[in-house]
Amino acid sequence: MPHENFNDLAAFAAVAQERSFTRAAAKMGVSQSALSQTIRVLEERLGLRLLTRTTRSVAPTEAGERLFQTIGPRFREIEAQLADLSALRDKPAGKVRITAGEHPALSILQPALKHFLPDHPDVSVELVVDYGLTDIVAQGYDAGVRMGRQVAKDMVAVRIGPDMRMAVVGSPKYFKNRSLPQSPHDLMEHNCINVRLPTYGGIFPWDLEKDGQEVNVRVEGQLVFNTLALRVQSALDGLGIAYLPEGAVVSHIKAKRLTRVLEEWCPMFSGYHLYYPSRKHTPALSLLIDRLRYRGKQD
Description:
299 residues; Arc Repressor Mutant, subunit A; D-Maltodextrin-Binding Protein, domain 2; 3 domains; DNA-binding transcription factor activity
C-alpha cells in the first residue's frame, strides 16, 4: 500500500475519534479544507461513505465505524510504541502500580516479573488482584489488565496474551453417577461452582455461545467463591462443575483429573490487554509494557 494511503487512514482515524474536522485538523497540524479533501479522496478510492457530515456534527457511517474499530487500535499502538522508545532515554526507576484479576496475575504478570525485576533493580511493582472493573485513574494505578472486550475506548491498550476461551469442567468423581451435560440448559440439573464479582454486584453468569447463539446461564450450586484457585480445587475435589479460564485447567484436563464438557459452547475471544490512560508514562512502565507485549506464539 502506498505511504499516502496510510496518511489517509490516519486522517480518517483522527476525524472519527474527534468527531470533528476542526479538532482533528488542529491535532494533525493541517487545514480543515485539506483534511476534508483527504477524506473525500479516501471515500472515493474505497467507494464507500465513511463519515456522515452535518452542519453541527460528524459521525462515522456503519462502514466508517467498522474501519475505525479496525485501524484505530493499530494507530494507538504505534503511537504508544513510539512513546515507549522515547521514554527509554531516561533511566527506569520508581514504582509501577497495576491492578489485575487473579488469572492474568498468575499466568502472565508473575512469570514476566520473575525476569523483569532482576534486570531492573531500581523498579518496584505493586500488583493488586481485583476482580472489579477498577477505575485506574481514580484509584491511582499506572495500569490495569482486562480482557480486550472490556477495555474502555479512551484507554491505550497493549495485548499481553493470546486469544483465550473458557472451559466447563468437572472431575470424573463428580460425573461418576451423573450424566454429562449436552447443552447449557442441562447445567441447571448440576451442582455448579459459582463466582461472585464485585463489578456485576452478584453471581457471574456463564457466557456460552455456539454457531452465533449466545446463552447467559445463571447456574446454581452449593459453592460460591471470589478466587480462581478455590474454584479449580473444588472442581478437582468433585464438588461440582466449574466455568474457568482454559489455561488454568488445561493440565488437569490432559491428565484426566478433570473432564471437559460443552467445549463447542466455549468460543475463542480476545485475550488479556494491559491498559493505561496516557501515551506519556514513566520509563519504568515503558520497559514493563515492552516486556509484557504479546508478540505471538514464537514467544
